[in-house]
């Protein structure tokens, strides 16, 4: 019996994976309100009944997409293995990673924007978000403690505030790069401009955290 159930289980997981991938594209493009379940079903090569069976309603599917998005970035951060690097080098690697992740995964930013439009009601009771977020804060807190112990970082820095700052200085630039290019009369999307901004982000965070930048 188990041998017969295994292929069905694999098929179910594959279908759920296709639905999540299709939903991420649709929600990132059109937001929760504008996303259409029919479009998600077509893109996933599934039917609406399967979507409702696996995920419930559209709000539940949106929550699943958000959870997967946060798990993805938090998992990638854990794989950086920052505890194996000197504190200053580890912090720079985290800043660099955050910037590059946003560039490579623009849908993450649009999904977060959409979640905030709905006051994060889809995440308020998510155990998934709670677990991965606490693990990340613990990781950053450990990095800061290690830097303080080695006389490299200033004491008393809140890991949550630091993460908000690292995210914000990249997030704001990228979400406003098109309007900013007009307002500041320079192409903020050019490769050299992106490189310049990354270095500015790194310098800013190091000056904030390090005793000697």
TrEMBL record:
Keywords: DNA-binding. It comes from Salipiger marinus. InterPro entries: Homeodomain-like_sf (IPR009057), HTH-type_TetR-like_transc_reg (IPR050109), HTH_TetR (IPR001647), NicS_C (IPR041474), Tet_transcr_reg_TetR-rel_C_sf (IPR036271). Residues 13-73 form the HTH tetR-type domain. Residues 36-55 bind DNA. This is Transcriptional regulator, TetR family. The keyword DNA-binding applies. GO terms for molecular function: DNA binding.
